[in-house]
Amino acid sequence: MIVGSGEVRTESPKQPVISIRDLGFSYGESPVLEGVDLEVLDGEFVGLVGPNAGGKSTLLKLVLGLLEPQQGSIQVIGQTPRQAVRRVGYVPQFPTFPRDFPISVEQVVLTGRLGFGPMLGWYRSSDRTAARQALAEVEALDLARRRIGTLSGGQLQRVLLARALVAEPLILILDEPTANIDQRMEGDIFDLLARLNARLTILVVSHDIAFISGYVDRVACLNRTLVCHTTERVDGDLIHQLYGDNVRQVAHAGSGHGHAHNLGHQGH
Amino acid sequence: MQDFLQALGQHAFLQTALLAGLLASLGCGVIGTFVVVKRIAFMAGGIAHSVLGGMGAALYFGFDPLLGALAAAVLSALLIGLVRLAWNAQEDTLIGALWAIGMAIGILFIAKTPGYTTDLMSFLFGNILLVPRRELWFMAGLDLVLLVTVMLFYRQLLAVTFDEEFARLRGVPVAFFYLLLLCLVAVTVVLLIQVVGLILVIALLTLPAAIAGHYVHSLGGMMLIATLLGGVFTSAGLALSYGPDLPAGPTMILLAGSVYVVSAVLSRFLARRRARRRRLLTATGG
């Protein structure tokens, strides 16, 4: 695998697949990101948390090459984000298409194959096979013929995940994948991500630090700058630092709460 | 109707008119579907009206007005598209401006061209009965360009129409295909101007595809049904207008408009009944 110039950690043979150095970005006057340094290693499952408007989505857009850094640099698989984007699968927070569009689930997943094969002509049978495999992997093969507008929130999220997977990415980036679905589904989606982590590096954005800490190797907390970048336990101090004074420690129903304190013991 | 069929056998100009309508319906079905699902009807309207500038200029300088129309349509499609891609916000103002400026330019040129009156009316509202036979070849050529382009780049055009951001992430040159789509709309506008004139173009571009969208839920299916509907509307409009000697273009549009209204009501009614039946089934089924 091609990697960037980032140093190799002595504790681990793994190489960085995303390296962000001194990144700065602002919309007009107000800075959204300042001096962000972050490395995601090959095979890691990293959670990116932080308050709303803390710059999480902006950081993702920069990593995907949809925005250009105004300061600092980003390397993805040793390339610029734009060059690397074909090897990155992306699942947006909200669908960026009209829900009433006349298109079937299978066709939506097939659009993920656009980087493959010749520029001209129709999808090939290998594309269709890949689309069905991706749908099977997210347990949504039975939805293949359904119209996209008839899906529930959880079903749609699985289909968007399949659309990202069908491109055979090395890195999977998800922006609040469970923001619009109920809690039982949330666990299902993260169980699926944990399985995919066996072969993919995953970067997932969430506002729910307690919930995702049960799944991820490591949490990066972003509030304009990287407040923490930790493999240590998430405690009250950290949440305080990240979200400010008036945060109530909310008890989470379901599996999330129990995991809140056993975060990443891999050590640094 | 009997009269029309009899006359169709006798008069070459009617046969030409019928063929022109059928050739136009291919464009309105294939590209009209993109216009409807991408919601760029207003943009298509702007392109259609600005075409008068090109037609007027061509007439004044002694070219074929159709070539002027084609040049003006492609030019305004590129202008509108580039402004949207670059600034995103000002697009509707620009469309409105191009709409009016194009017409103003056209009217000035036509006013300075001797013997203009009949031309102006047929530019605005079309006169399918005056389509010369050689122009059928021009129309067929435009159809071929549309079909070949859509077939070669179907995946990219679909992706750009469906989800621009995702298409960009898959490495599709979104700006290029967006502009290509607008150019295809421009070509279709010129195709349809022959039949219904530039003011009524927008109806023939959107109504057949919108009606198709009431019943089928795939892009390809919409294209097929919209093309068939376009053929029915132009042919039936021509036939209905022949007996009472009505202008053909407006007759076609009124026919398409009525079918659209009936279909919108009917499809809503059917959807509601399906939903009720499904509720009943789930209630009795458990």
Question: How do the strands and helices of this protein lay out in sequence?
Answer:
The complex is a heterodimer of chains A (268) and B (286).
Chain A (H helix, E strand, L loop, with lengths): L15 E12 L2 E12 L3 E5 L6 H8 L7 E6 L4 H4 L3 E4 L13 H6 L14 H13 L15 H13 L5 E5 L7 H14 L4 E6 L2 H4 L5 E6 L1 E6 L5 H8 L25
Parallel strand pairs in A: 3-7, 3-8, 5-6, 6-7
Antiparallel strand pairs in A: 1-2, 1-4, 8-9
Chain B lengths: L1 H9 L1 H27 L2 H21 L3 H23 L3 H21 L5 H9 L7 H20 L1 H9 L1 H6 L4 H42 L3 H24 L5 H38 L1
Helix pairs in contact in B: 1-2, 2-7, 2-10, 2-11, 3-4, 3-5, 3-10, 4-5, 4-10, 6-10, 7-10, 8-10, 10-11, 10-12, 11-12
Supply database-style keywords.
heterodimer; A: 268 residues; alpha/beta; Rossmann fold; six-stranded mixed sheet; three-stranded antiparallel sheet; 9 strands; 23% strand; globular; disordered N terminus; disordered C terminus; B: 286 residues; mainly alpha; ABC transporter involved in vitamin B12 uptake, BtuC
Structure description:
The complex is a heterodimer of chains A (268) and B (286). Chain A has a single domain (16-259), classed as 3-Layer(aba) Sandwich (Rossmann fold), CATH 3.40.50. Chain A is globular, with a radius of gyration of 19 Å. Chain A has 268 residues and is α/β, with parallel strands linked by helices. Helix content of chain A is 26%, strand content 23%. The longest helix of chain A has 14 residues, at 183-196. In chain A, strands 5-6-7-3-8-9 form a six-stranded mixed beta sheet, sandwiched between helices. Chain A has a three-stranded antiparallel beta sheet with strand order 2-1-4. In chain B, helix 2 (12-38) packs antiparallel against helix 11 and helix 11 packs across helix 12 (248-285). The termini of chain B are far apart. Chain B is 87% helix and 0% strand. The model of chain B has no long low-confidence stretch (mean pLDDT 90). Chain B is globular, with a radius of gyration of 20 Å. Chain B has a single domain (9-285), classed as ABC transporter involved in vitamin B12 uptake, BtuC (Orthogonal Bundle).
